Amino acid sequence: MVPSPLPLVRSHASLDQALDPLAANPDTFQRRAKTLARRWDRDGASLEIRDPLEWRREGGPRRSSSRNQPSAVFSIEEQLRAEIDQIEIMDRESEAQLARRIEFARIRLDLALERSGLEEADVSSRVRYDPSTHTDVDTVSDELPEEVRRRWIELHAMRRELVECNLYLALINVERYAKRTSERLDLIQEGSAALFRAVDGFEWRRGLLFRTYAVHWLNQAFRSYLYNNGRTVRVPVYLQKAMKHVNLAKIRLGGRVSDASVLSEESGIKESVVSMALAADRGTISLDRGRSSGTAGGGDENRGAVEWLPDDAAGDIYSLSMEDVSLEDGLSDAMERLSDREQQVLGLRFGLGEAREHTLSEVAGQMDVSLERIRQIQVRAIDKLRTPALRKAVSPFLEA
């Protein structure tokens, strides 16, 4: 038996040797790179998939505080920062070379998808790259052609390399947006995801550093997260932006100005939008949170609002005034929808305003009509009472 030939794997160095001359003329790079890709496809060549350890410094994460505290427990953010500190930062030429490799890998993936009659969406949801083994670990992707799976893994591995080498940008730029530790971790996660979008849109032909382009995506991701998650009750983005301009106008006017017309003139925003911004600019507070959050000890300072808001002089904790609508008011409003005869039948039948409930025959005897006629009036009246207003009034008094 003749053994099958080993697959041809092109290193990144050999790929750079082929692509660098093409980059001398950026206008023709894509066309000539596509010609090169077709030739390598015919040769059955695959691209090298680098180990993530190759762009990390030796020695593992450095933690300066561990010298004095060998058994110290580090927070997730400290561990993350220590890991990112070990990743080597690329220079301008290295970034441009990796960006050209990514573009070449995408060209090869597009050609493979075209030959297979597939769309990129068919692959992205079914292939998952495992950086520890450099393989596809999703069993669903077994249905995909081997060439498509390999091209996808090659592209994703290169994108991941450029993202990891720029993760430090998320740590640097997050400080101006984060106010709490938990919030900072969420923002870092959003920024890391935004770096992938920056990789897909980065244009090496312009000669810019990747960090110059990526900062825009990071700031956009941070602001979007805060706009959507910064409040317990979400306020539309356009209103949050309007609130910012209104607050700046208040500062310029030197005091607590609440007149929408004055603020509209100062901020240059429509008065109707200013009014909505003022109405939306209301924060929320937890009833269990103490007035001096973060302090130790007891006393009134750490009592939650649920303890100091009640009025002890009010007597009974519950009163009818606390209800949006009482059962009596709800029934009265609903009964007004009925005719006098229907009100009389229901009043006698269910004891509304009466000493007791009456049977159908008793009601029929009092009103001098047949029992069947009383039943019909009762059914028609109850159907009329099936209104949202009555349902809202009655539901708090019904057992679950």
Instruction: Report strand %.
Output: under 5%
Q: Give the count of helical stretches.
A: 18
Task: Identify the strand order in the major beta sheet.
Answer: 1-2
Uncertain residue ranges:
62-68, 137-141, 293-298
Average per-residue pLDDT, rounded, comes to 80
What sequence of helices (H) and strands (E) makes up the elements? EHHEHHHEEHHHHHHHHHHHHH
Termini separation comes to: 76 Å
- Shape call: elongated
* Class from helix and strand fractions: mainly alpha
Largest sheet: 2 strands, parallel
Number of domains: 4
Helix content: 55-70%
**Strands, total number:** 4
Our Rg estimate from Cα atoms comes to 35 Å
Describe, in plain words, how this protein is organized in 3D.
With 400 residues, the chain is an all-alpha fold. The protein contains 18 helices and 4 strands. It folds into 4 domains: 139 residues, no CATH class; 54 residues, no CATH class; 39 residues, no CATH class; 74 residues, Winged helix-like DNA-binding domain superfamily/Winged helix DNA-binding domain (Arc Repressor Mutant, subunit A). Helices cover 56% and strands 2% of the residues. It has a two-stranded parallel sheet with strand order 1-2. A hairpin with a 4-residue loop joins strand 3 and strand 4. Helix 6 packs across helix 8 and helix 15 packs across helix 17. The longest helix is centred in the first third of the chain and has 25 residues. About 4% of the residues have low confidence.
